[in-house]
């Protein structure tokens, strides 16, 4: 929103045309754009803000987290390579072994692939549940703090309670999904045991090698799931720090020499971000 549009809207509001929902919607969209811009700017300039004392904590935390991310990625690459080698070894064993029951072997491979997919889905649900739980704890603390202020608007308290209810329902839904997947995995394990029992007589000579390959696959999948969850958590923290760096640099690029040097190549973006902040403030004023 430009100043001209703002004054026109103020005049319209004085005559009874109060488009509150539109103003709030515009402010929400602009805030989303601003947060994306802050994250993008922080990602672009964070390595140049080591001279900004106010961003010392964010800068060094980013240095630490990026190192941890690189280490996790290296371990993840190793696990992926081990998994690929184990799959190749398993394929070779299955190819050269004398297996009269090809239909059962094909069924076993399909069940294994399904179990691997279910395991990854379960890990994703667990990671999501962890995020929901963190959000719930934050909202719960917010409600406790706001409840102690008798002058705080009831609408904010109600909104926070609604958010707590939503998060609780999300967590319950994720728990149900996790249990359903766990049941599916257990059923798949039982199915694998049944198939293995039928194939046992025909795979006796190669059972030891095959078992070792499957163990490596299982361990590699578990390690991959763990590393991916760790990487996702670190990536979330990094993006939060990017946003904080971008927010500070964009606000003080015109008054802080170190920020100005860091953001020298991004002045047009910073000007757009300043315009967004002004527009958000004007839209909120009009919505009041």
Quick tags:
8 helices, single chain, 85% helix, 288 residues, elongated, mainly alpha
Structure description:
The chain has 288 residues and is mainly alpha-helical. The chain is built from 8 helices and no strands. It has helices spanning 3-14, 20-45, 56-96, 102-147, 154-199, 207-252, 257-262, 267-287. Helix 1 packs parallel to helix 8, helix 3 packs antiparallel against helix 6 and helix 4 packs antiparallel against helix 5. The protein starts with a helix and ends with a helix.
Mean pLDDT: 84
- Secondary structure category: mainly alpha
Radius of gyration: 28 Å
Strand segment count: 0
Instruction: Sketch the topology as an H/E string, one letter per element.
Output: HHHHHHHH
Termini separation: 16 Å
Largest sheet: none
**Quaternary form:** single chain
- Shape, principal axes of CA atoms: elongated
User: Uncertain regions: pLDDT < 50 for 5+ in a row?
Assistant: none
Helix content estimate = over 70%
| Strand residue content | under 5%
Q: Helix segment count?
A: 8
